[in-house]
């Protein structure tokens, strides 16, 4: 009898364990089943993973592919986009690979792909300008949360789609209360003028990206011009904000894309009233006259300096070809193809009228 008891106790324990496991497993299965399908592999739907912002505006909506004929999947642009978390989070310590949040938050991790921000910093440093946030020791992750980086489970065509990027000047604990005693704050808020329009020192852009040379030399180096001396004022989602332009040349054709754009070159004092109001550029654009955004002479490009209202047909750019390693004027090519991307809109006649008028205190 005792032998039977001794023999059956472990069996009983095993049976109890099996029964407990059989009751627990459905709970685990239920927990898995309750996960919203939209949340499964949600990072793969993020703009960091898909590159959809670049693809969409390159291939569709009158993008540059109409000139090149090369699909986005065949360009090296996609190489910057993350096919897994490892791109930002993988680190090695004492010969062991590990998942690191600290590495993902490092500036160099972001700047390995966000080359335009890196270029803006270099040009600012050369000009003696420092972004106010950078000066306070802030980094990308101090403003951009996990929702910006990892996505939110939804697929977006662009970072300019509503909700695609969560951060703003007034989000979180930052800049929630504008000092209304500062007259430009109260006046510009009523006119729906974004903080960027005044507080971004200038916009970084690349000009005359020579697509044929990219393919021929398999390199961008030396095949475009970087500029950071002007700011476009554009409309986006009912607000006046900063914009950008990218000019490209391919197969003897000219192409320019305009977008809303935020360069991380924020200055505390902001622009002076006379930097935008009553300027020669504002008067010219309001009168329907062109403004030369850059000039080419003696093998060199000089860039416009200052603020320019956005009316695409009136902004003039130099169009250059490259022969024997030297830049020369592009022959022919006709009128440039103009793309208004990322939901950018020109300034209205009413807005131009306000800008052309001399500033009065």
Outline the structure in words.
This protein is of the alpha/beta class and 361 residues long. 35% of the residues lie in helices and 21% in strands. The protein has 17 helices and 15 strands. The protein has helices at residues 2-33, 47-50, 52-59, 65-68, 86-89, 101-104, 107-111, 115-127, 132-135, 140-143, 146-150, 183-190, 195-199, 211-217, 273-276, 280-286, 349-356; strands at 90-93, 96-99, 203-207, 209-210, 225-236, 239-250, 253-260, 291-292, 294-297, 300-303, 306-309, 315-316, 320-323, 326-329, 337-340. Strands 3, 4, 5, 6, 7, 11 and 15 form a seven-stranded mixed sheet that branches. Strands 1-2 form a two-stranded antiparallel sheet. Strand 1 and strand 2 (96-99) form a beta hairpin. Helix 16 packs antiparallel against helix 17. The protein is globular, with a radius of gyration of 27 Å.
- Separation of termini? 106 Å
Biggest sheet: strands, sense, closure?
Answer: 7 strands, mixed
Using the alpha-carbon principal axes, give the shape.
globular
Oligomer: single chain
Structural Rg: 27 Å
Weakly predicted, low-confidence segments? 1-30
What structural class do you assign from the helix and strand content?
A: alpha/beta
Strand content: 15-25%
Helix proportion range: 25-40%
Number of helices: 17
Average pLDDT across residues?
A: 86
Count of extended strands: 15
């Amino acid at each position: 009898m005792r032998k039977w008891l001794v023999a059956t106790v472990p069996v009983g324990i095993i049976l109890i364990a099996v029964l407990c496991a059989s009751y627990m497993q459905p709970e685990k299965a239920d927990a898995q089943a309750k996960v919203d399908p939209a949340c499964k592999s949600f990072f793969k739907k993020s703009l960091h993973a898909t590159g959809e912002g670049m693809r969409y505006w390159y291939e569709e909506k009158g993008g540059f592919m109409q000139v090149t004929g090369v699909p986005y999947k065949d360009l090296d642009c996609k190489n910057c986009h993350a096919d897994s978390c490892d791109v930002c989070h993988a680190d090695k310590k004492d010969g062991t690979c590990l998942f690191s949040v600290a590495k993902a938050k490092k500036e160099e991790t972001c700047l390995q792909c966000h080359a335009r921000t890196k270029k803006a910093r270099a040009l600012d440093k050369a000009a003696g300008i420092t972004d106010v946030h950078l000066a306070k020791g802030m980094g990308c992750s101090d403003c951009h949360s996990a929702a910006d980086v990892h996505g939110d489970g939804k697929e977006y065509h662009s970072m300019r789609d509503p909700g695609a990027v969560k951060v703003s000047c007034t989000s979180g604990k930052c800049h929630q209360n504008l000092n209304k005693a500062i007259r430009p704050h109260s006046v510009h808020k009523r006119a729906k003028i974004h903080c960027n329009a005044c507080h971004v020192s200038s916009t970084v852009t690349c000009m005359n990206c020579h697509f044929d040379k990219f393919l021929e030399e398999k390199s961008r180096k030396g095949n475009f011009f970087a500029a950071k001396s002007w700011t476009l004022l554009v409309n986006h989602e009912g607000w006046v904000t900063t914009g950008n332009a990218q000019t490209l040349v391919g197969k003897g054709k000219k192409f320019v894309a305009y977008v809303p754009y935020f360069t991380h070159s924020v200055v505390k004092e902001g622009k002076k009233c006379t930097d935008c109001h009553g300027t020669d550029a504002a008067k010219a654009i309001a009168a329907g006259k062109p403004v030369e955004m850059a000039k080419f002479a003696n093998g060199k490009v000089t860039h416009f300096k200052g603020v320019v209202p956005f009316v695409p047909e009136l902004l003039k750019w130099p169009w250059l070809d490259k022969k024997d390693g030297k830049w020369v004027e592009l022959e022919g090519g006709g009128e440039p193809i103009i793309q208004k991307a990322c939901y950018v809109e020109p300034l209205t006649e009413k807005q131009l009228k306000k800008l052309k008028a001399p500033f009065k205190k």
